[in-house]
Backbone:
């Protein structure tokens, strides 16, 4: 479990962000006293630092420089300042990524994951398994007792999302949301078409009715 | 200044001198001066007179040319009086003093206005950055709500963000060079960011976005390009028709790269097409759609800002549309240093 430290002066964002990251399975610490941030970070020994630029008293840039003197812990700047010069300065001071507020939450989570992975964190699983079906993400295939089916990119992402929420009901709107996160910009009709094809392929490898339709609510594995 | 202007300006003086000379000649003639002597005297007088006029003319012309050159060389023309070398003539000196005093009063007024405009712009920028914190907090809070309310609230938050963003970019458009970094950027990255920024509007409008040929890279400022593309996507979603599809496609034209955002929306009437880039122009679509729940009222600023930014980034921005069939906006990225990554 990766440990993330949040350095953010707005209490509302700090608490909500901590909650969000805890729900995502990270261990979270938040800095509330901004007098000696680099030392506090050093003491907490996190795997990743989320650093706001506009801190009371001391600028986030100088905090980053201070942290860099002590360790190589990756830093993601989270800031409302979005001028090009701020971004360049932040990255040249040793920041690993730069996200501007108000951020898209899935984007923030994806960036955190990416930075942790680059820093040598645990790798993403290459396969997903649920209810007798194995999905090979890299190869783009689904295999079950009845054989193996090749999936299109859309089908792969739909199935991957449903399998990651196995057992829960996933509404069509949530599913579309998740697909847009993966840069598949489809509408409701296209989702239906993709779903029909996906079901046909799953039936072909011996899994009829693998994806159940819950009328008026969405899909469920 | 020409001879003619010079002479007509001095007509009074010339006439008086002529009359004086004639009077003096008449007086000398009646008192018995020989006509030969008189002729020599008059000739000498004429020569001196002409020489004086000629030298006056040349001096004045030279001085005027000098002043003209100074004015042309100045960036801030209103500082002219401060930069003029002192004149010999008392009258000109006094005139310049007056001009200088008037100029100083104006310089003061101009710099006050500039300072207050700068203060205002800085305030807007600071305000925009401040407002982003509560918006971010609200977005995080949204997650705890159930599906429908969350989506609706997220949509409203996105609308606030769109307005805030436009305000920020409008404030910045006055000093673009301060905040522009030209880098090599993938079109797919620009498109993904722009779509991502406006996803809740697009999804709730039931739009399907298709992308084609975006694996090219261009040299531009990423943030501004994302903003421009975002404005185009917003328009496409706002003025959508049945089963809306937005196609973002790119193609290479020699060394240039052309990005097209095409929709199958309601289109723009032909007679309004030439004015869509005007500041504050909303058109019949902008007005008639303003009452509908999802579509925010048109401010007439989006395309105006796009045009302004595009001109600065040396992008060519053109629009084509047929009423009832759709609209296509093309952005042509500049040729210089343009590379196509395969």
Residues:
């Amino acid at each position: 479990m990766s440990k993330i430290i949040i350095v953010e002066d707005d209490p509302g964002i700090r608490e909500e962000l901590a909650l969000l990251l805890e729900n995502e399975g990270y261990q979270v610490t938040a800095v509330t006293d901004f007098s000696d941030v680099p030392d506090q970070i050093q003491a907490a020994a996190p795997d990743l630092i989320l650093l706001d630029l506009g801190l009371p008293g001391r600028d986030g840039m100088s905090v980053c420089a201070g942290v860099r003197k002590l360790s190589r812990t990756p830093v993601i700047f989270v800031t409302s300042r979005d001028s090009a010069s701020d971004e360049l300065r932040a990255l040249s001071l040793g920041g690993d990524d730069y996200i501007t507020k108000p951020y898209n939450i899935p984007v923030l989570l994806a960036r955190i994951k990416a930075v942790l992975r680059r820093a040598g964190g645990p790798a993403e699983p290459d396969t997903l398994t649920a209810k007798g079906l194995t999905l090979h993400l890299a190869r783009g295939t689904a295999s079950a007792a009845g054989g193996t089916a090749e999936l299109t990119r859309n089908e792969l992402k739909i199935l991957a999302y449903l399998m990651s929420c196995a057992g829960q009901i996933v509404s069509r709107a949530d599913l579309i949301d998740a697909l847009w996160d993966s840069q598949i910009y489809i509408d409701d009709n296209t989702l239906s078409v993709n779903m029909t094809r996906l079901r046909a392929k799953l039936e072909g490898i011996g899994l009829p009715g693998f994806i159940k339709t819950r009328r008026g609510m969405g899909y469920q594995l | 200044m020409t001879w003619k202007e010079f002479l007509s300006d001095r007509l009074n003086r010339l006439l008086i001198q002529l009359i004086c000379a004639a009077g003096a000649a008449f007086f000398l003639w009646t008192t018995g001066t020989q006509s030969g002597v008189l002729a020599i005297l008059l000739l000498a007088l004429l020569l001196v007179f002409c020489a004086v006029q000629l030298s006056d003319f040349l001096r004045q012309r030279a001085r005027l040319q000098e002043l003209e050159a100074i004015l042309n060389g100045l960036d801030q023309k209103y500082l002219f009086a401060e930069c003029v070398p002192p004149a010999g003539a008392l009258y000109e000196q006094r005139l310049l003093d007056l001009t200088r005093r008037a100029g100083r009063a104006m310089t003061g007024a101009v710099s006050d206005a500039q300072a207050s405009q700068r203060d205002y712009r800085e305030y807007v920028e600071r305000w925009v950055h401040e407002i982003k914190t509560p918006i971010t907090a609200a977005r995080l809070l949204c997650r705890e709500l159930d599906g429908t309310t969350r989506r609706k609230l997220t949509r409203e938050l996105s609308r606030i963000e769109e307005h805030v963003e436009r305000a920020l970019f409008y404030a910045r458009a006055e000093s673009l060079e301060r905040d522009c970094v030209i880098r090599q950027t993938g079109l797919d990255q620009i498109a993904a960011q722009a779509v991502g920024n406006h996803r809740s509007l697009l999804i709730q409008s039931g739009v399907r976005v298709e992308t084609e040929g975006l694996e090219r890279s261009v040299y531009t400022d990423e943030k501004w390009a994302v903003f421009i593309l975002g404005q185009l996507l917003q328009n496409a979603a706002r003025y959508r028709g049945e089963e809306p599809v937005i196609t973002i496609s790119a193609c290479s034209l020699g060394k240039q790269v052309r990005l097209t955002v095409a929709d199958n929306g309601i289109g723009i009437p032909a007679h309004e097409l030439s004015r869509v880039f005007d500041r504050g122009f909303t058109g019949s679509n902008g007005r008639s759609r303003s009452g509908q729940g999802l579509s925010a009222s048109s401010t007439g600023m989006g395309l105006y800002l796009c045009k302004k930014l595009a001109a600065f980034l040396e992008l060519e921005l053109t629009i084509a549309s047929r009423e009832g069939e759709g609209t296509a906006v093309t952005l042509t990225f500049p040729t210089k240093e343009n590379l196509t990554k395969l």
